[in-house]
Amino acid sequence: MKLSSTKAARSAAARKAVRTRRNNAFHAMLPFKRRMAIAEDVLASLEVEAIRANTGSFVRLDLDTLNSVEAGQQLQPTFLNPELSCSVCALGACFVSAVKLGNDFCVTEDHIDNNQLPFSDINDTLSKYFSAAQMQLIEIAFEEGRGWWKLDSHKLVVTEGQFRAAQRFGSNAYASGNYYYGPTNKLKAIMKNIIDNKGTFKP
Length: 203
Fold this sequence. Notes:
Distance between the termini: 58 Å
Number of strands: 4
Low-confidence stretches: none
């Protein structure tokens, strides 16, 4: 039993060391490369179905995932779990990937009780990588202007022209393939746009 405990401790330490190296490598990147890395990770996460694109909520974890996390624990190991399954919008997807790649984020009792992460936490984390205007454009494109930021929102920092362009981008991406996969189509299109434009979303 003692040997097994020692092996488990060594294994946990080794995983933590790998995460630390990943975190350091991510933060050593230039800002635009960090944003590209986030977008690339979102696409990879969609491919293996670690995340599911859905409108209406930022990040919603399933019960199995929540049961594996305690208040005060860092969320990064949970997001790196190959069995991860959570529902996300575009900003939520970026948040998950940002935490996976380089950000230690601690879970609170409120997160567990509500089965989701509030926008304030998403915003605080992503603002380290994306400007307020970029976050708004990404969210407007994914929600097609019917989400957190609407044209009459008092905290909107993008112009009406930019709002309409992002809205059209989302609508066109939704209709670009099988309608059943509309949210996924939009999320993929947004992330590919960020990669193609060197870390900047340009609808």
